[in-house]
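Work Package 4 report. The design task specified in the project plan requires that, given a folded chain encoded as structure tokens, an amino acid be chosen for each position. We show below one input record used in the internal validation round.
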């Protein structure tokens, strides 16, 4: 009985490790970069800038030229498919970086090439980068 319990526990640990590796594999499919690298990326005409915050957050200040699609809406992926070309790089950001990672994972799973801004617009603003209203 004890051996069976030990085997079940060991199996559970192995299964958990395997599941975590699978979960992290998706995050390796996109790149997260700092403010300067993100700013440099935005000079490329092959890049679409995506803000995944709410409309009210966007109205408070956003990066020039950003397309707004709120990642928390049920229609996020439908709107993304309608408005974002798959043949361009999607440069994504949010307030602090959490929602943009979630958006990057979903977009990458759908076949987009995505680059995420580490720290979001908070980090961008703190670095003295331009924000427009």
């Amino acid at each position: 009985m004890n051996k069976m319990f030990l085997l079940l526990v060991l199996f559970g640990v192995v299964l958990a490790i395997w599941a975590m590796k699978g979960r992290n594999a998706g995050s390796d499919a996109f790149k997260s970069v700092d403010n300067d690298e993100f700013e440099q990326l935005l000079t490329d005409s092959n890049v679409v800038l995506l803000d995944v915050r709410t409309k009210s957050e966007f109205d408070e200040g956003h990066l020039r030229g950003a397309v707004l699609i709120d990642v928390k809406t049920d229609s996020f992926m439908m709107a993304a498919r309608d408005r974002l070309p798959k043949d361009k790089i999607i440069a994504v950001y949010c307030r602090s970086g959490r929602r943009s990672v979630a958006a990057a994972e979903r977009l990458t799973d759908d076949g987009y090439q995505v680059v995420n801004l580490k720290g979001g617009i908070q980090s961008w603003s703190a670095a003295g980068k331009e924000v427009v209203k």
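Residues 33 and 117 are 5 Å apart (CA to CA). Validation will be extended to a larger panel in the next phase.
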